[in-house]
Design brief:
Shape: globular
Mean pLDDT: 85
Number of helices: 11
CATH superfamily of the largest domain: P-loop containing nucleotide triphosphate hydrolases
Helix content: 40-55%
Structural class: alpha/beta
Strand content: 5-15%
Radius of gyration: 21 Å
Number of strands: 7
CATH class of the largest domain: Alpha Beta
Low-confidence stretches: 91-98
CATH architecture of the largest domain: 3-Layer(aba) Sandwich
Strand order of the largest sheet: 3-2-4-1-5-6-7
Length: about 325
């Protein structure tokens, strides 16, 4: 037990010093060992809250990874340190991440001011991985000025990023299909900055106008109006302007204390709810295994004697009575 605790303390100390091996080990534990992850996050939590967290989301094929590479280079030009969590779809064969075009970021890993980690979603909903929040905290506590989170890019429902990032960049590109439907389906409400990437393609201006049209239909009154920028990630065109808008949104939040506090409170509440859900489920499953009743309950579900939701309610009620 002592050895385990010492190892955890060493990892925590290393993270707080910005040691890359400790950061990598901490994130690996966040992915694979919920109890150890809790100890590590608890150990670094007081040193979090300094990094600006930027989420980058949008459909597959919009060029998010290439755009993020250029965003990193621009922030490094500004002498800012950057941590990146790139969430990828899970391989059905290995359970690991499909790295895809993440490979082009690899040359940045030799830069001591950049830390990049690819993370498998493991079928976690919302375009993130279960360990994404913990990984963000680790990179924050390690002293990064900026933490970038790239979502899976599997479609239109990736709105959970708003519960992790303070600035959300929604990326679209012309020629991906029905852009207007993709814009309507959830991401309209979460975007702080819209980007039309691959703007050298035909119909780029139409995509911009589509976004403008949807924004005009929104009845939501907001103090910050999301700008719409055009970029060509392959050449870096428009990336400096994008970074300037991200910084402008950061300044907006800093100057609007009430808006920032509401954002942080909403994020904290979402994380608390998720933590309660995870710990409650873990506690109940541990009890079932300890008592040896898990197999019997699963058999009852398979025989259609009880449905899973009713079984869950029964177990939760029983847990509450024990307390």
């Amino acid at each position: 037990m002592c050895g385990s605790l010492t190892k955890t303390e060493e990892i925590i100390g290393g993270i707080l010093k910005g040691d890359r091996k400790s950061i990598a080990r901490g994130i690996s534990l966040a992915e694979n060992d919920l109890r150890q992850a809790q100890k590590i996050v608890a150990g670094v939590y007081s040193r979090t809250g300094k990094a600006h967290v930027v989420g980058v989301t949008g459909p597959g094929g919009s060029g998010k990874s290439t755009l993020i590479e250029k965003i990193i280079r621009e922030y490094r030009r500004l002498n800012r340190t950057v941590g990146v969590i790139a969430v990828d779809p899970t391989s059905p064969f290995t359970g690991g991440a499909f790295l895809g075009d993440r490979i082009r970021m690899q040359e940045l890993t030799t830069d001591e001011g950049v830390f990049i980690r690819s993370m498998a979603s493991r079928n976690y909903p919302g375009g993130l991985a279960r360990a994404t929040r913990d990984a963000v905290k680790i990179l924050d506590a390690a002293g990064n000025d900026l933490v970038l989170v790239e979502t899976v890019g599997a479609g239109q429902s990736e709105v959970d990023i708003m519960r992790v990032a303070q600035t959300v960049v929604v990326v679209h590109a012309p020629g991906l299909g029905d852009e207007i439907q993709a814009i309507k389906a959830g991401t309209m409400e979460i975007a702080d900055v819209f980007v039309v990437n691959k703007a050298d393609r035909e119909n780029a201006n139409k995509t911009v106008m589509d976004i403008q049209a949807v924004m005009q239909l929104s009845s939501k009154v907001v103090a910050w109006k999301p700008p719409i920028l055009k970029t060509v990630a392959l050449t870096g065109e428009g990336v400096a302007e994008l970074v300037a808008k991200i910084e402008q949104h950061k300044s907006f939040l800093e100057q609007n204390v009430e808006a920032k506090q509401k954002l942080l409170r909403d994020m904290a509440e979402a994380e608390l709810v998720e933590a309660i859900r995870e710990r409650t489920a873990m506690s109940i499953m541990d009890d079932l295994r300890r008592k040896g009743t898990l197999s019997d309950l699963l058999q009852k579900i398979l025989r259609r004697e009880v449905d899973p939701a009713s079984a869950a309610e029964m177990l939760l009620a029983e847990k509450m009575r024990e307390r």
